[in-house]
Design goal:
- This is Trimethylguanosine synthase.
- GO terms for molecular function: RNA cap trimethylguanosine synthase activity.
- Belongs to the methyltransferase superfamily. Trimethylguanosine synthase family.
- InterPro entries: RNA_cap_Gua-N2-MeTrfase (IPR019012), SAM-dependent_MTases_sf (IPR029063).
- The protein is 34% helix and 14% strand.
- It has 125 residues and is an alpha/beta fold.
- A four-stranded parallel sheet has the order 3-2-1-4, with helices on one face.
- Helix 4 links the parallel strand 2 and strand 3.
- The N and C termini lie far apart (44 Å).
Length: 125
């Protein structure tokens, strides 16, 4: 059996898109799946969706997901990746700053997994 990295699961070969930062910050699929199975709500808001690892798993267990990211390229990757998983119709995609949008949003749960900053995060002073 060939070991897999499980970033966005066994569908990686189907065209999953990740940018350089996402390779280091996407939640492994097995972890994202566990979280989504444990916290099943009607509407979940993923405040920092990145490439969509958690968003996709929440869309599999919840009725609706609101995926937010400040980076339009990350939203485009999430849309693409959610389409590969067949859950894009359950997701509302928003490009914007979660902290500015939060007062106007409604959800049963807000999932917060902010980006960790990439390879050089420890060098920032």
């Amino acid at each position: 059996m060939k070991p897999t990295l499980c970033l966005l699961g066994n569908r990686f070969d189907e065209g999953i898109k990740l940018d350089r930062e996402s390779w280091f910050s996407v939640t492994p699929e097995v972890v994202a799946r566990h979280i989504a199975e444990k916290y099943q709500y009607d509407v979940v808001l993923d405040a920092f969706c990145g490439a969509g690892g958690n968003t996709i798993q929440f869309a599999r267990t919840c009725n609706r997901v609101v995926a937010i990211d400040i980076d339009a390229n990350k939203i485009a990757m999430t849309k693409h990746n959610a389409t590969i998983y067949g859950v894009h119709e359950k997701i509302e995609f928003i490009t914007g700053d979660f902290f500015e949008l939060a007062p106007r949003l409604k959800a049963d749960m807000v999932f917060l997994s902010p980006p960790w900053g990439g390879l050089s995060y420890s060098k920032v002073s």
